[in-house]
Specification:
By secondary structure, the chain is mainly alpha-helical. It has one domain. The chain is 62% helix and 2% strand. A hairpin with a 5-residue loop joins strand 2 and strand 3. The protein is globular, with a radius of gyration of 21 Å.
């Protein structure tokens, strides 16, 4: 039995036999998926630049509708598409990796080792990118943490029948908001575990403060759903497009319906008074931490429609989105470090000092010694974002062509 046949027999129904041709797999790998990944990475950079540069990012949440302008809210809102899409696409990538001839055992080993590597990067490289130090400020468990934990969980789930995983992931996405009334304080000594599982918050204070921003359970379900969806991309193009458009439309309409009904799907109900603009913004203000059902429908539905568009457009190998989408971890780590570094010349010009930037910014839990008026206007944020992209594109081109052994890990 070939390795590909073993992969198929180990996951009944996962890969239609008439679609396991090399061209079909190559097409799924080389067309729109990389561009979609690249698009969300580009948008993500806007949010991270805002964290380091925007004056109001240091003072209040951009989703605080009593303080934030519509422009600031929408600047933050558009970046909400990044984490769910990337988690879902990571699951899709795992399925496609299996389709290229690997065994379930090989895929499982890849996922748990990759997951552990991401956890290590979270507490070292990413922490350094935020604070320019490894021992200052709180330890923030953010997106690499969630991605790594989801991969470790998926390394076990791939051994189960795909239909079981699909049902479980959909149920968890749809029903996890039933647990919203449970709080860490209500479970006593296991409160730290509930922060890891479902409620953002401080999981530990000694010897260092550990703040969990990305509770893992909903994210595991999103990646598992992507894994179960992966075989759709191996179907004939016309059939694949039909599924992407129908499912993307259905998820988007489900969000509109649930948000309109305003009973279940998000712990933060929309406002029903206060003026048309405020009500529209509150309609879009779905909860990200942890990602509510409304939040995931709002983001994954349009992302599937965008994927269908990219498959139709067939971006070239040199398209900036394709280039960035093929080196996502390199882009993520370097662009964050770059955004923080670019804050130095701006601070020197405005304040005559930039040493305070060696501490975590207020947007990341830091407080002192930042000037009380630190930060810049939203147009400056957008200009710095464009500068980050202009620098990152040639770096991604170079890294994409590199034959360094580091490519296996970053």
């Amino acid at each position: 039995m070939s390795s590909q046949e073993w992969a198929v027999s180990s996951s009944p129904g996962l890969y239609p036999k008439n679609n396991l041709t090399a061209p079909a797999v190559k097409q799924a790998r080389d067309t729109g998926l990389d561009a979609l990944r690249g698009l969300v990475m580009v948008i993500m950079a806007l949010d991270h630049v805002r964290d380091f540069f925007h004056a109001n990012a240091m003072r209040f949440s951009p989703e605080d509708l009593s303080k934030a302008s519509a422009a600031l809210f929408l600047t933050r809102w558009i970046t909400h598409f990044c984490a769910p899409t990337f988690m879902f696409v990571a699951g899709v990538g795992a399925a496609l990796r299996l389709s290229r001839g690997g065994t379930v055992s090989e895929l499982s080993r890849y996922l748990w080792t990759r997951g552990l590597w991401l956890l290590l990067l979270e507490i070292t490289v990413f922490r350094f990118a935020i604070t320019f130090g490894l021992f200052s400020g709180p330890l923030m468990l953010v997106v690499l943490w969630a991605l790594g934990m989801a991969m470790i969980a998926l390394s076990a789930l791939v051994w189960l029948p795909q239909k079981w995983v699909a049902v479980a992931s959909v149920l968890l996405i749809c029903l996890h908001n039933l647990a919203d009334p449970i709080t860490a304080s209500s479970v006593g000594s296991f409160g730290w575990l509930w922060h890891i599982v479902h409620e953002p918050g401080v999981a530990a204070t000694s010897p260092i403060t550990v703040f969990v921003l990305y509770p893992v359970v909903p994210w595991i379900a999103v990646m598992a759903a992507g894994y179960c969806f992966g075989p759709v991309l191996l179907r004939p193009p016309a059939e694949r497009q039909k599924i992407l458009i129908r499912l993307g439309t259905a998820l988007t309409l489900a969000f509109l319906l649930l948000r309109t009904v305003n009973i279940y799907g998000d712990p933060q109900p929309r406002l029903t008074s206060g003026g048309p603009l405020l009500m529209v913004l509150s309609f879009l203000r779905a909860t990200k931490y942890p990602p509510s059902l409304d939040f995931l429908l709002m983001t994954l539905g349009p992302s599937l429609l965008m994927l269908a568009l990219f498959y139709r457009l067939r971006p070239s190998e040199r398209n900036p989105l394709t280039v960035i989408g093929r080196v996502p971890l390199f882009y993520f780590l370097v662009h964050f470090l770059l955004a923080h570094t670019l804050a130095f010349p701006f601070a020197l010009a405005k304040y005559g000092n930039a040493l305070f930037l060696l501490s975590a910014p207020p947007s990341a839990g830091g407080q002192t010694p930042y000037p009380p008026d630190f930060g810049y206007s939203l147009p400056v944020v957008y200009l710095v974002w464009l500068l980050v992209l202009a620098i990152m594109y040639p770096l991604c081109v170079w890294y994409g062509r590199s034959r360094s052994p580091l490519r296996r890990w970053i």
